[in-house]
Amino acid sequence: xxxxxxxxxVIGDVWHIVTLIVLVGVALGTIxxxxxxxxxxxxxxxxxxxxxxxxxxxxxxxxxxxGDDGIGNPLELQKRLRDPKIIGVQADLEHISRIxxxxxxxxxxxxxxxxxxxxxxxxxYFIDFADAGGKLVWTGDSGTALASGDSVLYENxxxxxxxxxxxxxxxxxSGNNTVRLDLLISADYLGNYCENNSCGKETxxxxxxxxxxxxxxxxxxxxxxxxLYVNSQEPLADFAMVREPESVGSKRVxxxxxxxxxxxxxxxxxxxxxxxxxTSGIGEKAAYYAQPPELFLGTIIDxxxxxxxxxxxxxxxxxxMYKFYRK
Length: 327
Fold this sequence. Notes:
Elements: H1 3-33, H2 45-57, E1 60-66, H3 74-82, E2 92-95, H4 101-104, E3 107-112, E4 117-118, H5 120-131, E5 135-139, E6 145-146, E7 151-152, H6 155-158, E8 171-174, E9 177-180, H7 181-185, E10 188-192, H8 193-196, E11 203-210, E12 227-230, E13 240-243, E14 251-263, E15 269-280, E16 286-289, H9 314-326
Parallel strand pairs: 1-2, 1-3, 3-5, 4-6, 5-16
Antiparallel strand pairs: 7-8, 8-9, 10-13, 11-12, 11-14, 14-15, 15-16
């Protein structure tokens, strides 16, 4: 066979191999973006996929959106994410009054906490962000207090034969439109624990039960019989009692076992078990944390200042959240 024909065959083979690699890369990138697989499931793929994805999309990694009230400590979360012993990544911090549809789309992952008071329009921004493929982590009681002029959605707004009963503060009306964050995060808000129960300093609430046979990445490394704590001396360290709406697809990752039936102040029985971490949507791109990850077990040990507080899986939850939603 003449040399030029051999060269032509080699070039053809190389071209076929390159084409195959590109097609495999595109297919792998697509199923990673949709969340069907996580990049860490393929050895070495995160190191290839992540910089290409951020470069092509023009997105930054993480935005923490906060308000002026509610559960959560956004500065502590930002600090923990920045800590090289945990993650070592810079997360931007923005007040909810400054967010809009445009600047949310600049980020791959948006975390919302300490933002109890929220307008319906602001809530719609986050829904639109998630609908466009963004990854959203919603925490605590964010969005459960209406802004001036807002109104909740009632059951008879959807069915004229239903009672005039509010669905959820996460179900709103905006003109003739409905805004359903409750369906996005698969949670109905019932109230904050310390607003309905007696709380002291580092009050144990109940045991955390691992769902999904302990295999979900958001709770990797969490030991059995861990206890959830709240702290009345630090109002940011409460947790939100929620239940999952009927007929809404979600995955419960972590559950609180209260040990007995919990009651609201008005005497309403809520049951014994409550979701602590839920995921929903295609590829689990939305998640709800009843207590923000930086506050789980409400915990720091500080011997130098004369007190001891139990360290729980705070850093573990933050690291797992980052790896699951960013890697």
